[in-house]
Amino acid sequence: MKLDRRTILKAGVAASIAGIAAPVIGQARKKLRVGYLHTPAVDGHLWLGLQMGSYAKHGLELEPIVFTTGLEIFQAMIGGSLDVLATGAVVSNFPARGQGKVFLVNDIEYGTAQLWVRDDSIKTVADLKGKQISTTTGTTAHVFLDRALRAAKLEPGKDVQIVNQRMADAVTSFVSGAVNAVALWVPFDTIVRSKVPHARMLIDASAFYPEAAIMGGWAARNDFYEAQKPAIRSLIAAWGEANDAIVKDSDAAVETLQKSQYKDVPLAEFKAQFKQAKYFSTAEWRTKYEDGSVTRWLQQVTDFFARAGNIPNPVPASRYFDPTAYLEAIKA
Question: Domain SsuA/THI5-like: where (predicted)?
Answer without folding.
Answer: 115-252
